[in-house]
What we know:
Layout: E1 11-13, H1 16-24, H2 32-40, E2 44-46, H3 53-61, H4 73-96, E3 112-117, H5 127-130, E4 132-137, E5 140-145, H6 155-162, E6 166-171, H7 178-192, E7 204-207, H8 219-231
Parallel strand pairs: 1-2, 3-6, 6-7
Antiparallel strand pairs: 4-5
Amino acid sequence: xxxxxxxxxxxxxxxxxxxxxxxxxxxxxxxxxxxxxxxxxxxxxxxxxxxxxxxxxxxxxxxxxxxxxxxxxxxxxxxxxxxxxxxxxxxxxxxxxxxxxxxxxxxxxxxxxxxxxxxxxxxxxxxxxxxxxxxxxxxxxxxxxxxxxxxxxxxxxxxxxxxxxxxxxxxxxxxxxxxxxxxxxxxxxxxxxxxxxxxxxxxxxxxxxxxxxxxxxxxxxxxxxxxxxxxx
Length: 232
């Protein structure tokens, strides 16, 4: 059986901002004349994939351009320091948000927040967190891949218990598939367990369903509001 591959006459990107850059920043990208000709004939298209990060950064920080739209080293450096100065305030605002309720940082404990903001699906690697179960045999520890065992000690639970600094915020639409529903069930179970409650530490706040946390109050908008206040 033979398979023949043929190159397409069209060009596509998964970012509208990147398409604009490829057409405008002719000193940076190769084949600029081909890109311009494809655009003129309607054969250069762009489709947004996930967040429009350029627009979000402009909105968060109240700047004319974002890091992904800035190529001058001095301008990128100024934006970076502006983002960095607002980082601590944004983190505390996220932890104290009444819908998420993480344990805030203190002088003696600086938490590490892992944010997962995307679809709840197998493509995003959630099986590494909940399908693998951790077991101990005396001083030995090992893991097993047990997909449908819903009451085992998952890697995520082991991770949270092993280090009190760790916090998780998981936001996103649950994919309508067996895998997505299984991950959703795991997160609901873990979030409801004693020791992972709303005011205890370590905490996992499962922010997937609107019945628990409205989509507008998931991690990214909380960061956005905090950083905008700091940048004024």
